[in-house]
User: Fold this.
Amino acid sequence: MQIEQGRVQATITPCRSGLLVVVERTPHPGSSDFVRQHARRPWLTAPQPEEVLRRVVPAEEAVRLLVREGLHLSLAEQDALTRLER
Assistant:
């Protein structure tokens, strides 16, 4: 399951002990994060997504984790997330 809102993107994959949550954030072109990216890789012309978080958690914790990272889920998405864990 993939969720994208603004510059934040999350990929949620079921695994044996819960859900694997991977959150990526794309820095703003004028931010110091992009300047750091460009310093490491001078050939970049646009900001690239960076992995911010990678964790295996139960579905209830995944919702809280995504909200903390700035992704607000609808009730239907929360429902799909709990069904994904089963």
Observations:
- Helices lie at 32-40, 59-68, 75-85.
- The mean pLDDT is 91.
- Strands lie at 2-5, 8-15, 18-25, 50-57.
